[in-house]
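S1.2 Input.
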Amino acid sequence: MNEIAATPAAQVIISVIPIVGIVIGGTVIFFYLLWRHIQIKLLIKSGNYKPVHFDIKLFTLLTGILLTGVGLVLTFLILIIEGFNYPLLGGLIPLTIGICLLIFYKVYKNS
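S1.3 Output.
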C-alpha cells in the first residue's frame, strides 16, 4: 500500500482542528443562550413576553419516526456489512429509542 507519512506539524494541525471547532461551537452556543436569556428578560420587563407552547406529543412523534427510520437503515446496512457483531449496536440503539418514542406517543395522554 502507498502510505504517506504526515509530518509532525501536519499531525498537530490535524489534531487541533476538531478541538478548535468544539471550542468555537461551544462559544457560539454560550453566547446564543446568553443573548436569548437577556432578550426574554427584557421582554418580560416590558410585558411583551408570550411563553412558547411546546407540544411534546408532536415532538415525540417526529423524533420517533426519524430515529426509527435512521435506526432501520443503519441496522440493515451494518448487518449486511459486519454481520451480528458489536457494531450492530450503532443501528439498534437509535432503532430502539425511536420505537420507544413511538410507544410513548401512543400511550401519552394530553392533560
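S1.4 Remarks. Residues 64 and 98 are 4 Å apart (CA to CA).
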